[in-house]
Amino acid sequence: MLRQIEKVGIQYIQPDGTLTPEGEVAWKPIERPLKIEFYKWMRKIRLFDQRSIILQRQGRIGTYAPLQGQEAAQVGSTLSLNREDWIFPSYREHGVAMIAGMPLKQILLYWMGRVEGCRPPEGVKLFPPSVPIATQIPHAAGAAWASKLKGEPSVAVAYFGDGATSEGDFHEGLNFAGVFRLPVIFFCQNNQYAISVPFSRQTATETVAEKAAAYAIRGVRVDGNDVLAVYTVMKEAVKRARTGEGATLIEAVTYRHGAHTTADDAGRYREQEEAREWVELRDPLKRYRRLLEAEGLWSEAEERDWEACCKQEIEEAVCEAESAKAPPASHLFAHVFADLPPSLVRQRESLLRQEEGR
Amino acid sequence: MAQFTLIQAINDAMRLALERDPGVVILGEDVGKNGGVFRATEGLWERFGDDRVIDTPLAEAGIVGTAIGMAVNGLRPIVEIQFLGFAYPGFEQIVSHAARLRTRTQGMFPAAMVIRAPYGGGIRAPELHSDSTEALFVHTPGLKVVVPSTPYDAKGLLLAAISDPDPVLFLEPMKLYRAVREEVPEEAYEVPIGQARVVREGEDVTLLAWGAMVPVAIAAAEEWTQKGVSCEVIDVRSLYPLDEETLVASVKKTGRAVIVHEAPRTAGVGAELAALLQEQAFLWLEAPIARVTGYDVPVPMFALEDAFRPDAYRVSEAVRQVIAF
């Protein structure tokens, strides 16, 4: 039995995997390969996430931010974008990054404390994870503004959490987007907690979505564990942005199954009962797999094959990342300036001398 | 006497302050139920309640700004900024208001408050969590800036900061949070702001350091002591105001100084110390003053942090340099 913890917003796939009447309408026009792709990405992202936690426990990567529970929000939203669209993620968007075209190896390098993991492949407009909360929100507004000024059709998306909505940068970014009618989507994964602080301590409003009204942009609340609803809502927001109708604030209501990071213990501040309900009854993968299987689009055998395929890909990426040549100490000075000023050249030389002397 | 780590000493100081003065409140992100991400406020929320140990929304400008309002209206706020590298949204409130309210109101509404922040590298923290930006605050008139490196000093300095009539930035070297335990008195006591601590006495070279660089300086000093060079190590401890007397007297005695800090070199606090020493001990100097610092590059992600942070080897080399001059 589901308790009504909160109103989750627009929902097309119910937790038991059945479609609502509106869901039927949204489901029909989606091509079969995309229906399957939704699931494949969610499964791969979850497997990567679980593997990463183990790697951290084994000391093979540093502190890691788990995303389990948020796969539908990330997959549904990112698959609505085109390659020329800009993405400004926070530090929990490994799923977004993968779909955008960031190799797994790079994502792992980032969590190994290597700056190389910040750099996307050529042509991928994915910013490095934004660690200071909400600071990526004005960036997305600015990138969207540039597209608009240049007359290009690309849009920009900022990904952030519920905690970010308390920072000034959130309000400033949304305000600019409203004033200049910018082609930007503000995608909030409201996973209920900013580390330990519950959403009710973040704001007195019931939702994030209603904050859009203060800036005269559109606000939508969607069930963030329903990949179809997220995809549909995001598709609409992207279309509006591309056609000059301005920005949308999307609040995807979801839940972080695990801790804030591997350095955090969620048991200190969350009711076990609440977490269990989200994990067992509202899980984004479970519900979508039920739907796919009911529609005859997925089977146990395909599940096994796909899982094996993902695991192999992940292991290969782990091997690649772990066998990547360690950066020399002098790499501290790489890309600090286009041309290294003389004082920095001297500092680099002194570092090299020190390294030799050790 | 109790055996405390540095972070336990900080926790103990806040517990005492909350007990002694009903005006003391703690504000910050995750400081309540969770007890702080490093557990600095562990147990305080349970004991003193939600009105005194306050989980705030995630908004540093809001936290510092409201703390200023509380301070001018008679409370004694202790703000926790989760990491110094995330203080920037609150920076304007600190430099434009907290630091100069006493001046602007001509003594009418000073903002007596403490801003605590973990800082520095060495713990393999995620990106942007390891900055050392003490110079930004030392350069801000109206602020006091202190950095303990031992559990004893942490408790005494924090209690001094809480009772200080001016805003105090209290920087906590994360690397040392659980590095050592030492005897800490159970009662309240203060370590005066503005006093350096002579960690070990020596004759030939003075090593000046603070925070997590103090143990690094001690390690280098021990190495040279075995080679017959006697190093004095001073924990500067109070970056503003500086204990000029102790620092200058030491350099007049040894004639040589090596300044160690984790922050980048250019315009770091070490530059101020070097200027001060050459102004006041010029005729006593036997060698140019050496600085061992982070490089002038963005603080790296942790794969390279050991290359960035000064270590005993680099400090030792600097000692060699000033001795050989």
From TrEMBL, chain A:
Boundaries of every Dehydrogenase E1 component domain copy: 40-328
Family matches, as Gene3D superfamilies: 3.40.50.970
Class of this enzyme: oxidoreductase
Catalytic activity: N(6)-[(R)-lipoyl]-L-lysyl-[protein] + pyruvate + H(+) = N(6)-[(R)-S(8)-acetyldihydrolipoyl]-L-lysyl-[protein] + CO2
Pfam families: E1_dh (PF00676)
InterPro entries named among the record's database cross-references: Alpha-ketoacid_DH_E1_comp, DH_E1, PdhA/BkdA, THDP-binding
Source species, domain of life: Bacteria
EC number(s) per entry: 1.2.4.1
UniProt xrefs under SUPFAM superfamilies: Thiamin diphosphate-binding fold (THDP-binding)
Known partners and oligomeric status: Heterodimer of an alpha and a beta chain.
Function statement: The pyruvate dehydrogenase complex catalyzes the overall conversion of pyruvate to acetyl-CoA and CO(2). It contains multiple copies of three enzymatic components: pyruvate dehydrogenase (E1), dihydrolipoamide acetyltransferase (E2) and lipoamide dehydrogenase (E3).
Protein name: Pyruvate dehydrogenase E1 component subunit alpha
Taxonomic lineage: Bacteria, Bacillati, Bacillota, Bacilli, Bacillales
TrEMBL record, chain B:
Alphabetized NCBIfam families for the sequence: PRK09212.1
Keywords from the UniProt entry: Oxidoreductase, Thiamine pyrophosphate
Classification via Pfam families: Transket_pyr (PF02779), Transketolase_C (PF02780)
All residue ranges annotated as the Transketolase-like pyrimidine-binding domain in the record: 4-179
PANTHER family the record matches: PYRUVATE DEHYDROGENASE E1 COMPONENT BETA SUBUNIT, PYRUVATE DEHYDROGENASE E1 COMPONENT SUBUNIT BETA
Keyword Oxidoreductase belongs to the record: yes
Keyword Cytoplasm annotated: no
InterPro entries: THDP-binding, Transketo_C/PFOR_II, Transketolase-like_Pyr-bd, Transketolase_C
Cofactor(s), names only, from the UniProt record: thiamine diphosphate
SMART domains tied to this protein: Transket_pyr (SM00861)
Protein name: Alpha-ketoacid dehydrogenase subunit beta
Gene3D superfamilies documented for this protein: 3.40.50.920, 3.40.50.970
